Amino acid sequence: MTVAARPVIGVLCCNETLGRPVQTVATRFVAPLARFSDSTVMLVPAVRDAVDITVLATLLDGVLLTGSRSNVAPERYGGAILPTGQQIDHERDEVALALAGRMIEAGKPVFGICRGLQEINVLFGGTLSTDSCRGRHHRGSWDGCFDTLFGHRHDVELNDGGLLASATGRRRMSVNSVHEQGIDRLGSGLSVEAVAADDGLIEAIRAQPCGAEVLAVQWHPEWDVDHSPESRAFFAVVGHSLRAAADAR
């Protein structure tokens, strides 16, 4: 009996300096894609000269734009200079936006988590804001305890009839909140899948511009996936969309 090959999903890395420049991606983004999306993961370096976007878009069945310590550079969406202390990763911006755009054009699914949601919104012509998140959506320090940082939570309301509401069976749920930027103006063609229950900030978005799924959440489903059926449901949606893309090859 022939066993079908698992679909291949690209996962964006980030540029960081740990004594020397390195490519990084937290294992927690990778592991759920194998366990709950039944996919093979290919890490994509955020190095513009090391990535052939056309080749990658041919090889991959989908892509996940991960969360990151860095924020999308404001010149990408005509925004104000970021507050002191917030990091920028220009090469991550370039690779992520170019690859996501090419994948969407090819009718292949694109997913985003935290920074990834912000990148997708910018790709669709939207804007971001820091003011809407200050003091409410990011508490703690990147250099402190991650359990404390990711322990900050709030409720979100899911759009009735939306993909996430259908997948999770929920209309309201608690999510973690670890982001310094948020959506200001929603990108053209994107629909809202969830908003923060307390302040209405957009927390999840979706589109199907070329037939394949484009879905992103502002929270981190990978963080508590072992203990959260709702988080596992997100990765199940990823897996379903990847298999549909692979079958369409």
Percent helix: 25-40%
Total count of strands: 15
Strand order of the largest sheet: 4-1-5-8-15-14-13-10-11
Query: What amount of the residues lies in strands?
Result: 15-25%
Major β-sheet annotation: 9 strands, mixed
Order of helices and strands: EEEHEHEEEHEHEHEHEEEEEH
Separation, N- and C-terminal Cα atoms: 21 Å
Radius of gyration: 17 Å
Specify the structural class.
alpha/beta
Kindly state the mean pLDDT as a whole number? 92
Low-confidence spans: none
Tertiary shape: globular
Work out the helix count: 7
Question: How would you describe what is shown here?
Answer:
The chain is of the alpha/beta class. The chain has helices spanning 27-35, 53-59, 90-105, 115-123, 146-150, 163-168, 229-247, and strands at residues 8-12, 14-17, 21-24, 40-44, 62-65, 70-71, 87-88, 110-113, 128-129, 153-158, 172-176, 182-183, 191-196, 202-207, 214-217. A hairpin with a 5-residue loop joins strand 13 (191-196) and strand 14 (202-207). Helix 2 (53-59) packs across helix 3 (90-105) and helix 3 packs across helix 4 (115-123). The longest helix has 19 residues, at 229-247. The mean pLDDT is 92.
Secondary structure layout plus pairing:
Blueprint: E1 8-12, E2 14-17, E3 21-24, H1 27-35, E4 40-44, H2 53-59, E5 62-65, E6 70-71, E7 87-88, H3 90-105, E8 110-113, H4 115-123, E9 128-129, H5 146-150, E10 153-158, H6 163-168, E11 172-176, E12 182-183, E13 191-196, E14 202-207, E15 214-217, H7 229-247
Helix pairs in contact: 2-3, 3-4
